[in-house]
Design goal:
Blueprint: E1 9-14, E2 17-22, H1 36-45, E3 65-70, H2 74-87
Helix pairs in contact: 1-2
Length: 102
C-alpha cells in the first residue's frame, strides 16, 4: 500500500535565491487533500500555486505550493513554513526537522 500523504515544507538556497515548497493540494495534482479554506489560507500567507506566473524565472517544482525570495529574506521563509504547517493542521509535537546539505 502506498504511504499516506504527509504535510511538509522545505527550503533550499541556490545562489542569491531562497526557494520554498509546501506540499501540493490534490486539487492540482499534489498529495495533500487540502480543504478550500486551507488552500485560501495558504494563498493568503503568500504561497504561489502551480500555474501562477513565476516572477523570478526559477521554474518551481509542480505540483507544490512555492515561493522564491532573495537570500536576504530567508528568515521570512521560516515563518511562512511554520504558519503553513499550522494551517494544514500539523501537531507541533510531530514536526521533524531534516537538514541536508548538497
Amino acid at each position: 500500500a502506498p504511504a499516506p500523504p504527509r504535510r511538509y515544507v522545505q527550503v533550499r538556497v541556490a545562489g542569491a535565491w531562497g526557494y520554498a515548497e509546501c506540499v501540493g493540494a490534490t486539487r492540482f495534482g499534489g498529495e495533500w487533500p487540502a480543504t478550500p479554506a486551507q488552500h485560501d489560507a495558504l494563498r493568503a500567507l503568500g504561497w504561489l500555486a502551480p500555474g501562477d506566473a513565476d516572477p523570478t524565472g526559477t521554474a518551481p517544482a509542480y505540483p507544490n505550493y512555492w515561493r522564491t525570495v532573495p537570500v536576504a529574506e530567508l528568515p521570512a521563509l521560516a515563518s511562512l513554513g511554520a504558519r503553513s504547517l499550522e494551517v494544514l493542521g500539523t501537531d507541533p509535537a510531530a514536526v521533524r526537522v531534516d537538514r541536508a546539505r548538497a
